[in-house]
Each structure stands twice: as structure tokens, then as C-alpha cells.
Fold this protein.
Amino acid sequence: MEVQEFLNICLEFIWTLIKVNYEIIKAMIRTIVPPEPKSVKGDIVLISGTGHGIGKEMAIRFAALGATVVCVDINDTSNEETVKMIQARKQKAFKYRCDVTERSAVMHLAERVRKEVGDVAVLVNNAGMMPCNPVLQQTEQEITLMNKLNINANIWMIQAFLPVMVQRNYGHIVAMSSMAGLQGIKNLVPYCGSKYAVKGIMDSLAVELRSDPRDLSGIKLTTIFPYIINTGLCKKPRIRFKNLMKVVEPGEAADIIINAMRREYTEISIPQDLHYLNRCSVFYWARARDFVRVPN
């Protein structure tokens, strides 16, 4: 190895260390002194799965903040109830029925929304499902549908609504992963795989946007990692540390998600302390880690 080549490698290594440490310090400062929440007043916010649960609660809260909310759900009846609740408060909401597992339906949705409402500034990919059984008892049909909804729908929605964000260099995409997208959980083998995929989609999208020769710094991404939300998906959960790993109500979860989005956090867990606990779990021995997170 020539001296010049060796010096170049050393300089590149030192420069990388400086940049990494700068980002670590910046992240620590953001944790201690959170950034001011940005306004969503006047923005068009599209949320999937607004017929019930977290999606419904987010729609209500975004509308209260002055956003125009586009409510998307396959269940037209429950979705209409959400929209009527918002409109009864003299706030702006629009209803669309869409099967987000079908790419053609999502593309058609994007065209309609742009013509009838306007350019979507905030996309919240919330729709999902969670079959809960030992892996050998889960059927091909439910696993296929789950992957279409939990994985494919995220990609179709991004492909449909990201182009306008790129044109404007303005937008925010929020994706619902799960604590099951950070660690394995029994009886949720296919679900864990789908939620790991959501994290991978968002991480990869961040790299794509960051490396784009155009300045796309105006497009932000936030990935959410909920533990147990009281939406009826998880029946009688067994929890070891109930104060730390509590069951969270949909309204509280919606508040945390919207706060994370408005402060432009890249990741957040629900409850929030769990994210830091899981990050530390890499240092645990496997059996010790399992003892902490899953009751026998």
C-alpha cells in the first residue's frame, strides 16, 4: 500500500468518526431539548385505517390541529362515522374507500385525492392486521393477506404519494412498524417478519432520499414501534412489567405519534421508554433478554 493511499484511508476514517460523533451529539441534544413541534395547519394529511382505533384517533387530532384530513379505509361505514365526527366540529375531512393491498386501487386513490382535495403533505400508513397463533397454525390465506396489508400496502402508498412530495420537496411519511419489528415475539412469527419489513422499507427510503442528487431534505420520515395498543388485536396480553410495558389506549398512542411526527423524530416507540430499552438489549445475553421481555 502506497503512503498516499494509506493517508487517504486514515483521513477518511477520521472524517467518518467526526461525522458519526457529531450526529450522536446532535441526537443527544434533540433528546434532552426536543425541537418545537411544526404546524400542520393547512396541510393535507392522508391516513389509512381511519375506521377505528389509532387511525380514527389520529384523524380526529390532526383535524383539530387545522389539517385537512383524508380518511381512507376499506370499511366505508365506520370510516364515514369518523368523517362525520370531524365535520360536526366544523373541521375538514374527506372519506375514501380503498383496498390498499391493490396497487391499482391505491394509484387511482392518489389521482382522485389530488384532483378533489389537493396535494398530500403527510402520509400515515396505519392500516394493518395481526394474526396471533403459533406459526404452524397460521393459514396461507391469512399470512398472504397480512403481508399484502402490512408490507405491500406501505410500498404502494409510498409510490403513489411520494412523487408529489418530491416535486414540492415537502412532505412527511409516517409508517407503523411494531416492537415486533425490533424483536421476535412468540405466536407472531409472520407478523414479526412483516413489521421488520416496514422498518427496512423506511430505513431504505431514508437512504434513497438522502443520497438523491436533488435536495430532498424537506421530506421527513417517522417510523412508529408500538408495543400493545388497546385496539382489540391482542386479547388478554401477558405483561411482566406492567408499569413499563403498559397497554396504551388508542387516543394516547395517537398523541405520541402526532407529537413524534410534528417534532420530526425518525423513530419512536409506544410507550416511549421501550425504544431505549430495546436498543440496550443488544448487550444482553439472549436468554436474559427473553426473560425481560416475554413471560413464560
Residues 282-296 have pLDDT under 50 and may be disordered.
